[in-house]
Amino acid sequence: MICSETNIRIRYSETDKMGYLHHANYLNYFEIGRTEILRNMGMTYKEMEGDGILLPVLSVNIRYNAPSYYDDVLTVKTYMREKPGIKVLFEYEVYNENSDLICTGNSTLVFIDAHSRKPRRPPDYFVKKCSAEFKS
Amino acid sequence: MICSETNIRIRYSETDKMGYLHHANYLNYFEIGRTEILRNMGMTYKEMEGDGILLPVLSVNIRYNAPSYYDDVLTVKTYMREKPGIKVLFEYEVYNENSDLICTGNSTLVFIDAHSRKPRRPPDYFVKKCSAEFKS
Amino acid sequence: MICSETNIRIRYSETDKMGYLHHANYLNYFEIGRTEILRNMGMTYKEMEGDGILLPVLSVNIRYNAPSYYDDVLTVKTYMREKPGIKVLFEYEVYNENSDLICTGNSTLVFIDAHSRKPRRPPDYFVKKCSAEFKS
Amino acid sequence: MICSETNIRIRYSETDKMGYLHHANYLNYFEIGRTEILRNMGMTYKEMEGDGILLPVLSVNIRYNAPSYYDDVLTVKTYMREKPGIKVLFEYEVYNENSDLICTGNSTLVFIDAHSRKPRRPPDYFVKKCSAEFKS
What we know:
The structure is a homotetramer of 136-residue chains. Chain A has 136 residues and is of the alpha+beta class. Chain A has a single domain, classed as Thiol Ester Dehydrase, Chain A. Chain A has three helices and seven strands; from the N terminus they run βααββββββα. In chain A, the strands form two sheets. In chain A, strands 1-4-5-6-3 form a five-stranded antiparallel β-sheet, covered by helices on one side. Chain A has a two-stranded antiparallel sheet with strand order 2-7. In chain A, strand 4 and strand 5 form a beta hairpin. The first copy, chain A, is globular, with a radius of gyration of 16 Å. The N and C termini of chain A lie close together (12 Å). Chains in contact: A-B, A-C, A-D, B-C, B-D, C-D. Chains A and B meet through helix 1 and strand 3 of A and helix 1 and strand 3 of B. Strand 3 (57-64) of chain C pairs antiparallel with strand 3 of chain D, so a sheet runs across the interface.
């Protein structure tokens, strides 16, 4: 299993008139979790894009257990539990400062070529890193 | 079945460096669809909040079939196919200008009291309208 | 003078915990005003980018007179009062449904080449249209 | 002078199709700078709102010198150089990782009562802290 843990302080601009972190922003927090999982693996998504490989999102499923509030520091835990192929599954848990699990989710992304915008195999350094991690 | 159909032009600020409508923004488009479905039913979500009733999101599931781009006019179709109780299920289809179904999704929301933030039954005018629509 | 007038309904996702349209969103509304002024001139910003010409923002000045709220329909009036060169000055007025002037602003943008990212003269069709409009 | 210095990593969701941090997001970064300046002063904006005092924005002026990009870590320096009254002036400098000053700005905010939404004097703890800092 490959994972990352990131702390994110909720911004005023991310709240809504209900006083909650607006629910769509959790998808941006998941994206930060993915960015950090790649950084933990010794690569960056920025470099991957520089190499002509994009990783758009195919699906997201998200469940909200409790709201969160301005200035709270949330902990986003991101997991890659299955060996990825052309598609990659990420799973997420978001905790508040009381360690309540306030949100869970998952998303599937696909490697595509930046020029053709067609699916392609993941870059070698990613495959190599995953093979080391997900040995059978 | 109760439904709404809304056209939304993609804003520059909603694009990302991939050149796509950033995937989290579809959740905001779904929210517009819900706002318009209530307006079609003869009420507004704004008034409902004024009456002390909030409708936060419990879950979202979204599947992206194809990207969309700056200045495209998308059509968001929103459906309430089941008679709602304390929870309401909305379903969504998003089409581009070529009538391609680029995104589908659903979300479940729950009626809560604005003061106690506890679940409560939907407002009478909403129940009445739904009863008329979902006669068995 | 070249101008546009656009109606924008405030989204739930654009509000903040104060219950107001979050102040940063007005910059996105200004951007929509610019998009529409170009469309009124017979071109689109999308096509301009397709021709390899970008128009990034150099400065913004904005003054908020009164707040605005979820579901309000604002009217954004955008003006190009001076004949543009490599830089273009846009001015904005935002009105609410009571015709209160709730926000004013201006921004300066610059034409750049998409490849070199260096300033360049505006496209011919833009110059021609402006010359017709700003005859001395 | 009272100041804060905050590092912010640019999120994918904050980029636009030009590949830049979308210009409206700098206003959100300024807001984070204000949040941190208050925290440095020994209070939080969250508590201030809890005490029934809001601080909406009256005006913003911003100048963009150079673009910034996904995954860059920006440094936001926020300054309160003048002793505040009912209004407070904040000034901002944003630097990239090469220490280039990529953006400058300022904004004026006003203390208001959360209930009446009318201007009011700042809270005592804020006045006291400022008096200690801005001794003539």
